[in-house]
Amino acid sequence: MILKTIGFILRAIKFRESDLILTVLSRDYGKISLIAKGARRTESKFGAALDLLTLSELVFYDAENLKLLKEASILEDYRAIKSDYERLTLALQSVHLLNQLVEEHHPDRVVFEFVRDFLSKLGSVNNLALGAVAVKLKLMRALGIAPRMSGCARQGPGCQASPARCAWASSPPAKGGRRRTDQAKPGLVWFSPQSGGFVCTACHQAGDTRLSPRLAQTLTMILGLSWGKLDRLALTDDEIALAQRVLDEFIGFHLKAPYMPSK
């Protein structure tokens, strides 16, 4: 059977003398592996359509145990990213994470469009260190595994199980008498990968990581901002390093193995 789709080239591994095994995030079939015969030859018909981060139109034979690439043509090569070392590094790190988190043969248009939007808008991000934090949060949200940052993850919104002890439950009611659980409250906030996100001061346990109120609030705000508006936020180098550490621990918890970002 011959199939046609569009997809991003996430990974390319040398195979035999002149072939490549490609990992592709396709729009219609999810993450798939393709064999591109002769792709490493100088006169290869595929040309730059198989370069990493390229969005290409792909035609392939879909056999039971083998997907063989027949044709490939470039739709978007994201040349501006590839000519900027720091943006290229961030983009490659991001698809490395994507490749680890996404299972094969599970098509997801939300994730596909997230990648397209990210690569299209990366040029508008000036603070790339903050952008590296944002891409992890936004990708996890697209996958439905983002950390919980609305209230205390250990006890639930309002900590009804222990309302007298929890910082969220004891915070002043918002206008109209309703308690607000949509953002980190002033005071100390802790992060727990095992519990799924933010934990309040009263409910934290040994092994949780303490976050400053500013860092907790900024992580929450990132998800509500477009790529071009991330520069409205500011974190110190130490805060960014801490954010990266807790997010990597959270990712590792989902992978059931320590997550090591690509260099």
TrEMBL record:
Where does the chain cross the membrane? none
Sorted UniProt keywords: DNA damage, DNA recombination, DNA repair
Q: Specify the DNA replication/recombination mediator RecO N-terminal domain's residue ranges.
A: 1-76
GO cellular component term of the entry, any:
bacterial nucleoid
Mind telling me which Gene3D superfamilies this protein's record contains? Nucleic acid-binding proteins, Recombination protein O, C-terminal domain
The source's superkingdom equals Bacteria
* GO annotation, biological process: DNA recombination; double-strand break repair
Tell me the InterPro entries matching this sequence: ARFGAP/RecO, DNA_rep/recomb_RecO_N, NA-bd_OB-fold, RecO, RecO_C
- Family statement: Belongs to the RecO family.
- Record's function text: Involved in DNA repair and RecF pathway recombination.
User: HAMAP family from the entry?
Assistant: RecO
The name under which this protein is listed is DNA repair protein RecO
Q: What is the lineage of its organism?
A: Bacteria, Candidatus Bipolaricaulota, environmental samples
